Amino acid sequence: MCHCKDNCRQGRQTCDLGWSGSKWLNCQKENIMLGRPTIQENSYASSFNSGKAVDGRIETFSKVQEREHSVWWRVRLKRYQTITDINITMDTVSSAQYMVYVTDESLVNNNYSLCASNGASTTVQRKFVLSCSRALTGKIIEIHAPPHIPLKIYEVSLMSCAFGTYGTNCNRLCPSECHNTCNKDSGQCDQCPVGFTGEFCNVTCSKFCGANGCDKINGQCFQCNSGLWSQDCTRFCPKGCNSCQRETGYCRDCYSGYIYNGTTCVQCPARFHGASCTLSCGLNCKAGLCDHENGRCIDCKHGYFGDHCHENCSEKCLNFSCSATTGHCSHCEIGHHGEQCTRCDRGYFGEGCKSTCNYCKLQVCNNVNGTCFECEKGKYGSFCNQTCSSQCANRTCHQNGECVSCRNGRYGLQCELLCPPIKCSACDKESGVCLECHLGRYGSECTEYCPSECRNGCLINNGSCENKAVTTFPSKISDTPKFKNGMQNFLILAGTTILIVFSIVFLTKICKMQKERQISTQASTRYRGISSIIESSSVNRYHSLIEENPYENVTMESQTIEASDYANEGACATTTDDLIDKHVVAEKPFKKYGRFVSFDDEAPRRQESRDSASSTPYESIVIKDDSMSVSFTKY
């Protein structure tokens, strides 16, 4: 890569600022201090700040005002470097001893990090190459002046060959196996990828070296993980020490719970904890003791619990005694139980567990508000203080008051509704649809009649029967042997009853017919006696009655016949002696009397009895010995 101002054209070359070396190899020697971050103990003036010593200009300088102690100037490199020579231009004071250190991030200056010391015999500006007593690896370079001596630096430079080159003027290329990194003097590989070491970078650094890896030559760690020290970072820092110097194990930082006593880290004294032991243990820690690192109480005072004993034991804990770790009560006051005695014993609820679960099943309820989990039989409601409906079967209901099942003939959530009233034996609890009908009925309300061919019932849903010979009735009990035997007994009893009734009616009929014959014979004899005394003048008077219909009632004084004739069905008659002032009415008389057709002087003639189907009855007719008077009303 070219580092020449004229882009490495043929002829005389001029190197870029901060670069030098062979112009034939394009100026491959770099000042790795140029423009790097710097700092100094104090500034003589703002124009003499620390950066003037690495700006590449010899006419500028940085200056540190003298003090009663040693003053210093520092530069930080981009990466760790193995350093042997440093170029310095500075003012020196006669008899003053100047020190140059190469160190790591620990910034500890001692004999391990001392590059060289240089004394001066006169006070002059000097430009010199300071050679370290041995090769040192680091990324921080410090220059120290003795007390009461100022520090005036014009320029500090550290020359290093560009990647892939080596030699005095960096005019030679590194071997290919070095991956463009080799010893700047010998050409041997001196830089390996982070985490590897060895001549050919094939050896792994110690796993405790941290992110910066180790030296390629000797495998020494550049920096150790926290809490470790030594060249391979395998030794632990002193107890309580968070980090220590890699080379010596000297403690630089203490863990929380420890304090530095000037030599090492020691544990915090009793009742204190935290970083540098600046925090006090909690007030409720028993005896004031706590963990020196995190401040957790070793134990709590009586009545407190928690990591820092900030929580109060439950007031229901007997004598306020509880576990310092969990807060669980050792014993509870009477009427309470649970880990913190906050739950009431069975049968009680509310503040202080003073209220009782009266109607809850087994007296178990919510220990806060008293609501029941389950009710005793016959009760419902949140507190089981309401009684189930009397229409619930066995007076049993759910906790919301809904009946478990209904009494026969009822339905609804609380069985408050009646099943359809016509022939419905039982109905669905929710919908009221009939589940069982009386024999011979079907339908959702049992209002339909089974077909005639279904002799013993039919299906409740559609009225059909499985076969006409054997009728099926769609109820829950219709197919059982008990139901079939009951039907047979019912039919036998009904047949016997009908036979007895028919026999009684038949015998009664025969008796009445015999009675009517006797009455008819007596009436005929008496009627002929009456007709002989009727005068001939009556012939014309009643001649218009020839075509009239039968009478409803006929009364004859002296010898009287009374008859009743209903709706052209005839009448039966008897004498007044037989009637004994009572009216006798026959349901179906076998004889009807006709009207008088004519009367002559010799003898009256009576119209023969005839069928009265075409006649219209009269309400009444009265016949006396000497004359006949008729009163009638047609139906």
From TrEMBL:
Keywords: EGF-like domain, Membrane, Transmembrane, Transmembrane helix. PROSITE patterns: EGF_LAM_1 (PS01248). One of its GO terms (molecular function) is scavenger receptor activity. Residues 329-365 form the Laminin EGF-like domain. It comes from the Eukaryota. This is Laminin EGF-like domain-containing protein. The chain crosses the membrane at residues 490-508.
